[in-house]
Hints:
globular
Amino acid sequence: MEKKSHMDAFGAAALIAFALHLAFNQVVIKLTNGGFGPVFAAGLRSAGAVIVLLIWMRLRGVTLNVPREALPAGILSGCLFGLEFMCLFTALDFTTVSRASVIFYSMPVWLAIASHFLIPSDRMTGLRSIGLVLAMGGVALALLDRSDATASLTGDILALISAICWAGIALCVKITPLSTVPPAQQLMFQVLVSAPILLVAAAFFGDFIRDLQPIHIAGLLFQIIAVASLGFLAWFWLMSIYPASSVASFSFLSPVFAVILGWLLLNEDVGPKVWAALVLVAAGIYLINRRPKTA
């Protein structure tokens, strides 16, 4: 498809579907943790994604060669990717999908703060500042809400660290030579570097295997194929067609869908404070990513 100057119906539908896809993945991670240790599952996911990406790149004729100057940033992004999912998978072992998702999808907040200081062309505007305050208020509300018996401060903090690591990866792509590397290689850096880190770290996080059932294996395969490799490639493809600000504006849907799916599929008890936190975070993310219309 040719590059578009604005969002069209196909792009909007694809991005809504992708937001729902990411939200469903939170439920799948929670489910998969029943059969695998969370860090071990994250490591298997990255290792499996390396294989899928290698096959995809071979079929598409995409080279593995990258500029030497991009290597340090690529390795850093891989380390952050490993820490991100070490924390997220473990967080979902401690707390609910609803709580973890509200905090995890606050990533644009931390990216906006870092970008304000590190990228001169990406300063805070009045509208984005309002969004920042709303989203941070939502995160604070979620962290402070201890009314739910399933609430876990450890899980909440791990989800927050995961969100900050995700923002760090995005910042690497924005301000380092990694920005010149095609998306497939960027993703390869992340899964290739993170796989051994996670698999080694898994030895320090309890059992590798729990009560393993076919559904847990299916969940892991879903994450490897449909999320960690082909899913993110689809997102990069959409980013190459539509304006980045338009694509980013749909990110507020992921926490909304995640909370609803946790409630519907896992029977999670979502209290009023979590719903309120969700509204604040979603509204804040939307305003942070919204760009003023130009004449």
